[in-house]
Design goal:
Elements (H helix, E strand, L loop, with lengths): L3 E2 L1 E4 L15 H14 L3 E3 L7 H6 L9 E7 L11 H7 L5 E7 L2 H8 L3 H17 L3 E7 L1 H7 L1 H14 L3 E6 L6 H10 L7 E5 L6 H11 L3 E4 L13 H10 L7 E2 L4 H4 L2 H12 L16 E2 L2 H9 L17 E2 L7 H10 L9 H15 L8 H11 L8 E13 L5 E13 L2 E9 L2 H11 L12 E9 L8 E8 L5 E8 L2 H21 L7
Parallel strand pairs: 1-10, 2-3, 2-9, 3-4, 4-5, 5-6, 6-7, 7-8, 8-9, 11-12
Antiparallel strand pairs: 13-14, 14-15, 16-17, 17-18
Helix pairs in contact: 1-12, 5-7, 6-7, 8-9, 13-14, 15-16, 16-18, 17-18
């Protein structure tokens, strides 16, 4: 059976840029475009030329090689001709290959927001589309508020779609602008439209957590153009997440056997890395529980699950993790059994027989430490160090003889009262003793700086080590509570790892996690063969 083609339209750089706290520079836009080209989407919507300096510069030259370079903007304003509308002209004169014009498909919005008649709205839509085609652009139309408009007045919403298609729009994209439409409504409404569904698209927002479901419902109903963003970013609750939609369409029965994408199996295997690289660019930690691409997407904790996974991965995995460039993760915890340990050890390049008595020792150590407050679910690096130490496979790179921190309130040279934090660390590397002193913006920062200040022959090995995140959790109430600290680190390779420390003293717990982070970095630098690709 011949598969139908689905077309992927990414709006990360336009709709995604409306996310609170996200601001793309020109270089950011160029970098994200490269990621999207690598992924293999069909359209890249880069923004709104003429609206701001960055977008105008971005559209001053063609930025894509494979994907259709697309500009976004409004249809002509009421009372102006197309030729006398600066917004429309900025679109037509840009280096974009396609223009996506947004217009209101809800007659109530046309009257209230635009102050024009529904008929004039359709006339302006037609004139704008015709101008885009005359300029040699592929024309798309975003039908804003389409689903709410259809529910209020199905005749006008349908007429809007028919008018856009008759004027020559390649795609008319049905927008769930408020994000409140249910999947069953999406499917029913799309099916009811008396037009060629193969020229329709879907643009869903995630205000009910159903943007992906709504997108898939629209595909089932006949649309063949899909809009979304990397990692689902977007205003309010976000947009439809292409990182979830793409693998679902490519791998799941009911979609994979009916449709094809411009993304082959090799490109699909890049999707996890692309998702995490994008989060790196945004300077935020990736969501561990994101479908397909999250670190926990193929993780299991219970021992009985791990045992079943070892025999047949499909018992607890709906798709093979390697299909999306992810990996199986069997977490270690108090619920762990030997199967968890063996799978996790193997993933880290450690081979040990299931009858090796050291395995029982390691399992006992894990459970004892978790009873004291440690958690290795999200601290894989600390588990690797514990395992190698128990198995006699951990080199002793350096030893901390002692450390001290102090916080002092004093007056500076301008007479202002300030807090000064200082840390002193004594480290022994082989027969050499090093003492480092550092000031920081707090005791943990000062300790981190002092600990890494001088490691003798290992100093150049940790030059690209960076502390990314620091989380503290109080395990028991009261001032004498046990504290668990989770430290997230990364290096120049882009790899992230997590280490954990536990103590009634928050400084001690933090220092333990910092120490293990550096040790893990040295282990993977000095013993690269122990870290399988």
């Amino acid at each position: 059976m011949t598969k139908e083609r689905l077309y992927l339209f990414d709006t990360t750089l336009r709709d995604g840029a409306q996310t609170a706290g996200i601001e793309f520079s020109l270089e950011d836009k160029i970098s994200v475009t490269a990621l999207l080209e690598e992924l293999g989407v069909d359209y890249i919507e880069g923004g709104y030329p003429g609206a701001n300096v960055v977008d105008t510069e971005f559209f001053s030259e063609k930025r894509t090689r494979r994907a259709t370079f697309t500009a976004f903007g409004m249809t002509k304003r009421a009372g102006r001709s197309v030729g006398n509308d600066p917004g429309v002209q900025a679109l037509l004169n840009s280096q974009a290959q396609a223009t996506c014009f947004v217009a209101k498909a809800w007659d109530q919005q046309v009257i209230l927001a635009l102050g024009i008649s529904p008929e004039d709205n359709l006339k302006g839509l037609t004139e704008t589309i015709e101008a885009g085609l005359a300029a040699g652009k592929e024309v798309l139309v975003d039908a804003e508020h389409f689903f709410d408009g259809y529910k209020a007045n199905p005749q006008y919403a349908s007429l809007f779609v028919e008018t856009a298609l008759a004027a020559g729009a390649r795609w008319v994209v049905l927008c769930d602008t408020n994000g409140g439409t249910m999947p069953f409504e999406i499917e029913e409404i799309v099916k009811a439209l008396p037009v060629d569904h193969a020229r329709l698209g879907i643009h869903a927002h995630d205000d009910t957590g159903q943007a992906v479901a709504n997108t898939l419902a629209a595909v089932r109903a006949g649309v063949r153009h899909i809009q979304g963003t990397l990692n689902g970013i977007g205003e309010r609750c976000g947009n439809a997440n292409l990182m979830t939609i793409i693998p679902t369409l490519a791998l799941k029965p009911g979609f994979a056997d009916r449709f094809e994408l411009g993304i082959d199996a090799a490109r699909l295997q890049n999707i996890t890395r692309i998702s995490r690289t994008f989060d790196e660019l945004l300077n935020r930690a990736p969501s561990r529980q994101a479908p397909y691409v999250g670190a926990s997407a193929f993780a299991t904790k219970a021992g009985i699950h791990a045992s079943a996974l070892a025999k047949d991965p499909s018992t607890y995995e709906h798709v093979p993790p390697e299909a999306v460039g992810n990996e199986r993760s069997v977490m270690v915890s108090q619920q762990a059994g030997k199967s968890n340990l063996l799978i996790t050890l193997r993933r880290h390049g450690i081979e040990i027989g299931k009858d090796d008595p050291r395995l029982d020792t390691l399992l006992r150590h894990v459970k004892e430490r978790e009873a004291r407050g440690y958690s290795y679910d999200g601290a894989d690096a600390s588990f690797v160090l514990l395992a190698r130490k128990t198995l006699g496979m951990l080199p002793e790179f350096f030893d901390v003889e002692n450390y001290r921190t102090s916080v002092e309130r004093r007056h500076n040279s301008r007479g202002e009262q300030v807090a000064v934090t200082e840390a002193i660390v004594k480290i022994r590397v082989d027969d050499d003793l090093f003492m480092s002193v550092a000031e920081g913006n707090g005791p943990i920062n000062a300790l981190d700086l002092a600990l890494r200040k001088d490691l003798g022959k290992y100093s150049d090995k940790i030059g690209d080590l960076e502390l990314v995140d620091f989380k503290v959790r109080i395990l028991d109430g009261g001032t004498g509570a046990v504290t668990r600290v989770l430290v997230e680190s990364r290096d120049g390779s882009g790899e992230r790892w997590y280490t954990v420390g536990v103590s009634p003293n928050i400084i001690d717990a933090s220092f333990e996690a910092l120490y293990e982070s550096i040790t893990y970095k040295l282990l993977k630098t000095e013993e690269p063969a122990q870290f399988p690709a």
